[in-house]
Design a protein that fits this description.
The protein is mainly alpha-helical. Helix content is about 55%, strand content about 5%. β1 and β2 form a beta hairpin. The longest helix is centred in the middle third of the chain and has 30 residues.
């Protein structure tokens, strides 16, 4: 997945909150008068980290929806557990992306031999290369 597609998954409100967090952290860390170059770099880093935190939380919400997982508990877990351990746990424990059954349209795991709803055999051909790889 390209970074543009990944950024497109993030909900609009998460992007707005991330932009606000960047601005607030940048102006909170940067001194008001006569800031040196190092102080400006530190303020930019603080704002970037704050914005990235909210963008990552928004991505987890959208990705959990896409994978058929409960989005609010997973996002809360990722945000509440300190030191970004919650984000790492999400990426380690997330479910695979489901593909639609050709018969009934319900989501089926990539390694499933049959659809759990209608019993239709699934054609599993292994991992498929993305458009960018081919």
């Amino acid at each position: 997945m390209s970074w543009r597609r990944g950024f497109g998954l993030i909900p609009g409100p998460a992007k707005i909150v991330a932009a606000l967090a960047f601005v607030l952290f940048f102006f909170e860390v940067r001194p008001q008068h006569g800031a040196s170059a190092l102080e400006v770099v530190i303020a930019l880093a603080a704002g970037t980290l704050a914005g990235a935190y909210f963008l990552l939380a928004g991505y987890i919400y959208a990705d959990a929806v896409r994978r058929g997982m409960p989005p609010i508990p997973w996002t809360a877990l990722a945000v509440v557990i300190p030191n970004c351990v919650g984000f790492v746990l999400y990426f380690l424990l997330r479910k695979p992306i489901l593909h639609p059954c050709p018969s009934c349209g319900r989501g089926v795991a990539p390694d499933a031999a049959f659809c759990p709803r209608c019993g239709q055999p699934q054609m599993n051909m292994g991992p498929q290369p993305s458009r960018e790889e081919s």
